[in-house]
Design brief:
189 residues, alpha+beta, Cyclic Phosphodiesterase, Chain: A, 5-stranded antiparallel beta sheet, 4-stranded antiparallel beta sheet, 35% strand, binds adenosine-2'-monophosphate
């Protein structure tokens, strides 16, 4: 099964982010847009994983993040990887927050013993809104700078859990489901 580790948004915030990205979707760019329910912050992509590892991965994640306190992060700002002029991934940004960096680090340590190598690239938290079509050319995105200026979004959310997610690829795009929820420490100090 295809797995990844993510922070999911509360439904109201997910909806607000999706609505804020409407001017981009309306512009008919050669982009495969992520459906509202598919918006999430990826902490670690695991890829194809043996089903037998799910229980162990879930326990390891719970153990790794269970000591962290819930915290709030700000979302907003539109951008693209690698750039707005040659976009492959279009996103809303996530405030750089030490607690989120630590959480991503905890996740790396939790999954490492299962054979998942740490990311070589620095963690750049983002909310993927869409991915450029394979055949898209840079000239298709000439309007993106102007459009970006029209997009207004500033959100805030509380990070209370880390989720082990399954991605099932289908014709209408991937469907995501939570296979294990690892809550951050909820009890008062
Ligand atoms: P993204 O948020 O940066 O787009 C589920 O497929 C998630 O795993 C996606 O949201 C994507 O993160 C990430 N992902 C998918 N395929 C990947 C790959 N081959 N390498 C790294 N991350 C991937």
């Amino acid at each position: 099964m295809r797995l990844f580790v993510a922070v999911n948004l509360p439904p109201e915030e997910r909806s607000a982010a999706f609505r804020a990205a409407a001017p981009l979707r309306d512009a008919r760019l050669p982009v495969r847009w992520v459906a509202e329910h598919g918006l999430h912050i990826t902490l670690k992509f695991l890829g194809e994983v043996d089903r037998g590892l799910v229980g162990g991965l879930g326990s390891a994640l719970s153990g790794a993040v269970g000591g962290a306190r819930p915290f709030e992060i700000w979302l907003g700002g539109f951008g693209a990887f690698p750039s707005l002029t040659r976009p492959r991934v279009l996103w809303f940004g996530i405030e750089r927050h030490p607690a989120l960096e630590l959480l991503a680090n905890d996740v790396e340590h939790a999954v490492g013993p299962f054979g998942f190598a740490p990311e070589l690239k620095p963690f750049q938290p983002h909310l993927t809104l869409g991915r450029a079509a394979r055949a898209a050319r840079p000239s298709d995105f000439r309007s993106l700078g102007t459009l970006a200026a029209e997009v207004e979004y500033a959100g805030v959310m509380r990070v209370e859990s880390v989720d082990l997610m399954q991605s099932t690829l289908g014709r209408g795009g991937p469907a995501y489901s939570v296979v294990h929820r690892a809550p951050l420490a909820c009890e008062p100090e």
